[in-house]
Fold this sequence. Notes:
2 helices
Amino acid sequence: MGQVQREDSADLKVDYGDLQLSLNEKQAEVDQYRTENEHLRLDFEERLRNLHNEIQLQQKRFEAIVGEYEAKIQQLESRVQESQEERDQLIAEHEQEIRAKDAELQALREELAKVKVPTNPDLVEVVKQVAENVFENADDVKKN
């Protein structure tokens, strides 16, 4: 019985040694995985910070571009307003000129209405005679 106990004890020591070696190997693997995991986590965090910084940079660029376009839009709106004001002023000036010309025209019409054109029948007869003579003379000139 003593010998069986020694063999069992020797087997147990071998089994314990094998288990301890296996445990040490597994612990080394776990430590390796933890180290790799830590490196991956650090790498991920660095990439995340870089992406966050890039997003902020792009956002600032976008805001600058939007600001530029808003300023350009404001300038264009201001120019449109100025153009509309100039147009309205020109229209008002032209309308004023038209009213002044209409008033002049009306005054001339009124003045013309006051003037009496003589309608002397003898004068009309003389003008007819002169016209006939002119046409006859023109015919004679053509014949000669």
